[in-house]
Model the fold of this input.
Amino acid sequence: MPIHRAIKTLISKTGWYAYNTYRKGVHYHLKLSQAAALLDAPREIIEAFQAKRLEKLFQHAYQTTPYYRELFKTATPDISQIPPLEKQDIREQLGRLCSTAFTAEQRIENATGGSTGTPLTFYQDRNYWNQRNLSVYYFDRWAGWNFGEPQLIIWGAPVDLEDDRHRKHWLSTFWRNQYWLNGFRLTDAAMLAMFEQMNQDLPQTILAYPSSLYQFATFLSDNGLIPKWKLKGIISSAEMLYPHYRALAEIIFKAKVYNRYGGREVGLIGMECAEGRMHINCRDLYLEIDSPDPYAEPGEILITQLNNYAMPFIRYRIGDVGMFSAEPCPCGNDLPVLADLLGRSTATFRTRTGTLIHAGYFTRQFYGVKGVEQFQIIQETLKHCVLKVVVNRLWTEASRRSLVQCIQKALGSDVVVTVKFVDSIPLPASGKREYTISKV
Done:
């Protein structure tokens, strides 16, 4: 390893140690070992752990959360009798879902851009994030990731930030030893520059949106560019990983793709092992399939988050459809497996200059926008987009202008954006909620 890369890796390992010590305490190595021990444990130990955590969560929710005190009637409810938590419940009952054990300052506000067509604001606490990170560290190691090793990230990189936020982002990526390719704007020039830089810095892993990974791999393939990297693995996350995405990426990068499944509301839900099976993160959540026979008939996925006490998510209907596998995994890990996962689909938009705009750019524009209950953006042509919205009384003309301007900023100032107000946006026959569609 060249001396500069060895020094950079040492700096990064030191940075990771300092960060985790600050966030999780001096014994974070022990905490990570304990997390790994549970996730590697036999099924009966995992189920006993979940039962205790569910009991503790229910008691907390009943005692400190107005919404659940009224819903439960008792501190020890039967989970199968608890009505699922819907996104509409969160929008309408946000204050009553928050625990009185946490002050406003102790709650961390978060939001989705509406990957199910429904923007959502909610709260989490610091312990939730600490536990989430420990689980991410565990599962990402399945793909070969480790603290301090160089990693290429093809994601929604921050854009148009003030100078101080740019500096903070640069410092963060430096000590983490991460290299970011902006998945929101995949220009040929940016992809070529990153390819050349990675041939020098030799990443060990890639973390990427599946569609952005596919676009990058396509660019390399079309231009005869062969990576010199010896990747340990590729982590795909945040979107559906289609078979042709996976196939091309594994051919171009000569490494296995590990699909990671999660949601901003509840964290990491599951990840593929070396055998390609999607194991459920039973340490952080309890997952149910809303189906008469979840091992034979797919149903909607319900998530109970075991660590977020600031605003408990109990039997949350996340918007995906799945089914359990009854077969033990050849990898030897005893975590339950999702045999089938039918999630939400995305589209990559294209500008007249050939720039590719990731769907995440558009959904992010809905973070915190009040008055929108559902949305869908359709690129009809290079010059015309349609924005369908289901709105409520909080919708304003200023919101309409802002969203139109954001779309035009990405696709071109002369692009016509037609805003259509509709009563609902039906789920398509495929079962995959389409919140961005490109016909180009």
